[in-house]
Amino acid sequence: MDTNNLVFYNGYGGFDTANNEYVIDGAKTTPLAWSNVISCVSGYPFGFITTEKGDGFVWHYNSRENRLTPWTGKCTTTDPNEWITLSLADEKNTASCRLICENDEVRHGFGYSVFYKEVFGLVTKVTVFVPQNCPVKLTLVDVYADKSDAYIDLDYHARIIRDEYTFVSESFDTHHVKIKQGQRLNAVYMIGSEAEMRKDKIIDTFRDYSYCLSELETVRNKWKELLGKIKIKSEDRELDVLMNGWLAYQTVSCRLFTRSSMYQSGGAYGYRDQLQDTLCVNYLDSAISRKQIILHAACQYSNGNVLHWWHTAYRDVKEFGIDSKYSDDMLWLVYVTYKYVVNTGDVSILSHKVGYLDNRESDDTLFDHLVKSIDCAWEFGNLGLPLIKGGDWNDGMNNVGKNRQGQSVWLGFFLYCCLDCIIYLSKEIRNKDYSFQRRQWQNLAKEIAGNIHKNAWDGKWYIRAVTDDGTALGSAAAEECKIDSISQSWSVISGMWQISEAFTSRSMLALESCRDYLFNSDTGIVRLLWPPFSYKNIDKIGYIAAYPPGIRENGAYTHAAIWLARAMLETDELCDTGYKILKAVNPINHSRTSGECATYRIEPYVIAADIYSEGRNIGRGGWSWYTGSASWYYTTLLESLFGFIKKGNQIEINSKYNGTVTVLYRFGGSEYEFCITPKAKGRVELIDDGKKHYYTV
């Protein structure tokens, strides 16, 4: 395998930035499976996951409820669901090879993967992808007789799910084919629902290999068009590589469309989860964001509560899910709608009529749903802080408020932020006067801020929560969880830190404490909280204590690390530390050498949900692909670090980056090139005139 043109080659693989591919040396065994999550760029509900050894599974409609091949969750399996046996068919030779499983080189691209193998004097290439809006996985096989004539057999094998409990192995054979030297054999194999493939004439359509190649090119161009709307060129190539495709691809293909990975095959929509995924999509295709917001609004009850997660209906399967017991779910509709309106300038979404789960015929608007979200969260404990109920953003703290006495400080900051958001949005409603509600919301925000200032400060940082019996979590006096980062982060992200000098000084001290206690720049570990919870506190705190110390929400959660970086980038004094945190969670910086890969283990091209922070597995990446961290990482790099913020038809520049960055932005039919100098500030009006525009700020 030629590695000369690969960026950040680590002994196992590297980035081919010219072709937007991650290239893996098939002769090596990666520490864990390095996968690609492939879906239709249009959002059509069909897709599959494949690894460098061809492991994975195929799904239609729902990646959990309607799999076509089995999902095991094993990330080191050598027994895949699909493989192609290539055998020599002449009498003198009986050798065989399993294509896809045995490779010289593997290329994971946006919407496809390619497997190369030279064997028996033959050059083979296998390409897998999903065509536009068609429920079929295509496997294209190209066999080239490089050195001599060859008689070969091709056998395609697949384990197909027949019902909930059984699957069968099927094979499709191409036997005793002679390929003359310099010629090639092409074959197309398909996986999909047989009834639907025959009904829609998919089998007949994709029999033609050349037509399949044209469809592959269409898929590649569609992904390129979506992911290439913004391109970054900075002095930090590690950030550039992720920004220029991989983060957005992870968000759209995995998080929004597939909702599955090798580590978790959920299939469901999470209320807070997929809403947050739209934050980066606002910059790429706001129609996807708008559709997602409306979908989530329709999964709200008329009392303001929402479904925590749900599966959409398909065929004869009805929609189903569970009601939320979490105190923050419904508020994400407010926050994300606000970000959408600010980024896109699309105020019309607020007047879009959406029904409720218990009243589909309601003619309430999206803004009415936002009001109900605020009202539903309007419950406070004896300290004047919001009730945590069955948990807040950290699901694992599900026992903190099980008796409806526990309170969340983080939720206080988040609710304060959402009150600011709805106040802003209410001023965009022209056909109704919300001045009375605005005064109520303003008074409530003021009251929350006062109660946090009075009851949540621990001396050097804010506490995280208060349990039903009044125990403070995230306090220096505690044995476990002395400090939790998200209260400190959101004291800034919420805007509360700007109320007064007293709030500002406290938030600055809190962030400094996070730097000192939670961030190790030498190891690249950014802790969510410290010390971790132990199992003895599971009844009082929740299932977070069931996680081993240092793993997932009981350790170093990437989602929270990015919030911490975002908060620090809001300041002048700590923006350099915020930048270092962003570099610390970048998977490329954990995978520069084969030794680092052996520790980190998972893919270098997508963000991990967490990086283990304690014990013998410290530095190991956990749960790649399926994490909301990708969207937050993208927007934090773009907005908070490079200072590129879209506000309707304007770009606001407020850079915290010490170097110069070039941002290429496609606005309609126009192209803009921004050269943003260190610490630059400015504003540019966008005009869609079909021309190229150049600005230095």
The oligomerization state is single chain
- What does the average pLDDT come to? 95
- The CATH top-level class label of the domain at 32-226: Mainly Beta
Strand content: 15-25%
Kindly report the name of the CATH homologous superfamily of the domain at 32-226: Glycoside hydrolase, family 65, N-terminal domain
Low-confidence stretches: none
The percent of residues in helical segments reads 25-40%
Short summary:
Helix content is 31%, strand content 24%. With 697 residues, the chain is α+β, with helices and mostly antiparallel strands. A seven-stranded antiparallel beta sheet has the order 1-2-8-9-10-11-14, with helices on one face.
What features would you describe in this structure?
The chain is an alpha+beta fold. Among the domains are: 32-226, Beta-galactosidase, Chain A, domain 5 (Distorted Sandwich), CATH 2.70.98; 650-696, no CATH class. Helix content is 31%, strand content 24%. The chain contains 17 helices and 33 strands. Strands 1-2-8-9-10-11-14 form a seven-stranded antiparallel β-sheet, covered by helices on one side. Strands 7-6-12-13 form a four-stranded antiparallel β-sheet, with no helix packed on it. Strand 23 (519-520) and strand 24 form a beta hairpin. The longest helix is centred in the middle third of the chain and has 22 residues, at 237-258. The mean pLDDT is 95.
Secondary structure elements and pairings:
Blueprint lengths: L12 E4 L4 E5 L9 E5 L6 E6 L4 E5 L21 E7 L7 E4 L5 E5 L2 E8 L2 E8 L7 E9 L4 E12 L5 E13 L4 E8 L2 H6 L2 H4 L3 H19 L2 E4 L3 H22 L10 E2 H11 L4 H12 L9 E5 L8 E4 L7 H14 L21 H12 L29 E2 H18 L8 H21 L9 E2 L5 E2 L9 E2 H9 L7 H18 E2 L4 E2 L2 E2 L7 H4 L16 H12 L5 H11 L8 H7 L7 E4 L9 E4 L4 H13 L2 E4 L2 E5 L6 E7 L2 E7 L4 E5 L6 E5 L1
Parallel strand pairs: 31-33
Antiparallel strand pairs: 1-2, 2-8, 3-4, 4-5, 6-7, 6-12, 8-9, 9-10, 10-11, 11-14, 12-13, 15-30, 16-17, 17-18, 19-20, 20-21, 22-25, 23-24, 26-27, 28-29, 29-32, 30-31
Helix pairs in contact: 4-5, 4-17, 5-6, 5-7, 5-17, 6-7, 7-9, 8-9, 9-10, 9-11, 11-12, 11-14, 14-15, 14-17
